[in-house]
Amino acid sequence: MSKPEPRFFVPERPIRIVSTGAYLPPRVVTNADLVSMGATITADEMERMCGVRERRYVESDQATSDLAIAACQHALGGRDRSVIDRLVLATVSPDHMTPAAACTVQHALSLGHTPAHDLTASCAGFIYALDLAARCVATGDRQALACAADVRSRFVNLYDRSTVALFGDGATAALVGTGAPNFLGTALLAEGSGARAVYVPAGGSRMPASAETVRDSAHCIVMADGPQVYLTAVDGMIAIGEALLERLGLSLSDITMIVPHQPNRRILERMARLMRFPLERMWINVERTGNVSGASCGIALDEALRSGKLAPDSLILMIAGGAGYTAGAAVVRVDRELLDTATAL
Amino acid sequence: MQPLPERLRQLLAGVVSIDDAGAFEDLDSLRLIDIVETVESEFDLRISADQVTSETFTNVQTVADLIERLKGNPP
Hints:
The complex is a heterodimer.
Chain A: E1 7-9, E2 16-23, E3 27-30, H1 31-37, H2 43-50, E4 54-57, H3 64-76, E5 84-90, H4 101-108, E6 116-119, H5 125-138, E7 143-151, E8 169-177, E9 183-190, E10 198-199, H6 211-215, E11 222-223, H7 226-247, E12 257-260, H8 265-275, H9 286-289, H10 296-306, E13 315-322, E14 326-333, H11 336-344
Parallel strand pairs in A: 5-6, 5-7, 12-13
Antiparallel strand pairs in A: 1-9, 2-8, 3-4, 7-8, 9-14, 10-11, 13-14
Helix pairs in contact in A: 1-2, 3-4, 7-8
Chain B: H1 4-12, E1 17-18, E2 24-25, H2 29-43, H3 60-70
Antiparallel strand pairs in B: 1-2
């Protein structure tokens, strides 16, 4: 990847994350379960490769919108939904190719005629959605609901040693509004030269679904080049995080906790080492959740806010990077109201 | 002093299978990451994405070329 030149959003109008939510489906799938399902890598190798011990999978009758609805309900609690002026759902695994899964979520949440749409930014999905929600509020929306949800288990090739252990299912949401500001800004970028580094070959207009694509598992995730993906993910996430901090006049020493996307534990350990940031101040849940694509970062944020490990004025740096390539960063200054809301919901 | 490719062959023998021509066998992401981290640790280097191609971690000689390049000794 060439030198990153992200685009920043630092709002002039006070923007705050009002509340957050997350949902993980109850079905736990361990590494041993994957082996018994046919995976060709041992449970120990899976853990050593990516640090994942278990992940959550949906049941056969669940889809992405079901997870998104649960996460949004968690974030909203009993709040007035009539002031939500937009719903944006980041996903790479919508219920259907058409329409947007956000429309199903919008209806289930009884959001009236609130505009609702999907966006696709892979593992940076939640930060892209958060950025868009904040921009919407900055330009007049009363509140916007940013959601990220993915069912990756439907797209995992059990016989691909490189990817079989990585992914899980889940969802997250953040309600964004005005008030005492706690949202400081975002940085986003895309680098399309890496579009084939991690991708699902079939099922779109380039390679429509057919008996052959199903036979060849071409609708499953392909990670074309392991080391470059690994190195690019690390370099990209560090670069965009540092760029946003510089834009905000902050440095890593100001950051209380890094809440990253959860690609795999080895990437997170490398990030912490290269950033000289204590690993124990990086929120890591990948051993329990796996990589939940665009939802990972928001699930981790929601857990961190509910953990009791953050105090008012803590600064959180969220960073994510993934297929596309896409990357995003966001800085949030935690306040008492956000912590109280998190623990009350 | 031991030639770099030979030193690398010995160093990486515990990480990945290496054929007589120096090519890595049965590569997967687990072993590739191990190779990157082993080389970085042994030679006190940081390897970045823009310094490698899809061919870099395929055999002993290309990894040796990368190390020489990163240490300022282009092959």
